[in-house]
Request: fold
Amino acid sequence: MLAHTPVPYISEADYLAMEKNSQERHEYIDGSIFAITGASRAHNQISINLVSLFHTQVKGTPCRVYMSDIKLKIANRKTYYYPDVMLGCSDRETDDYALSQPCLIIEVLSPGTASTDKREKLLAYQSIPSVREYCLVAQDKYSVKKYTRNQQQEWYLDYYSQQDSVPFGCLDCEILVLDIYEGVLN
Reply:
C-alpha cells in the first residue's frame, strides 16, 4: 500500500520570512516552494555581462538593473521568481527584496530550467502589465529570443544571433549579441 504524504501549503508571509533567513533561494508558486540550483560559469558570465551592459545604460535614468538575488513578485498569481536579470524603472517600488513592476526580464537558459522559462515563466511574466520585454538567452550558442509587447498589448517574438544587436525599448538602446557572450563563446 502506498503512503500518501500531504503537501503543506506555505503562506506568502511564511515564505517571505523563511526566505530572508535561508541559505538557499526558493521560488514560490501559490503556496508551494521550489529550491533553486546553482548556475554554471557560462550562465553566470552571461548574467554579469548583461548587468554590466545595462548598468552603463541606466546612468542618469530612473531605471535600475538587478541580478538574480532580487525576487520578482507577481501578485495576481501569488508567485515569486528569481529572474537572472531585471530592469525596473518604476518609482513606486517599495520592497527592498522584490520588484513587482519590472520593464524587462531576462532568463539565461539552463538545461534544468529551460522548459519552465519558455512556458510557465513566459506566461507569468506576460501577465505583468509593466513588462514590455522578456528575453531568453541560450548559454551554449549565440541565441537570444526576445518577446516584446507593442502599444496594442500584443506580443511578438524576434530572434537574434551572433552578428546581430538586440534592441531594448525600455532603455532605448541596442546591445551586441557578441557583447552578451563576451568571455563565454568568443
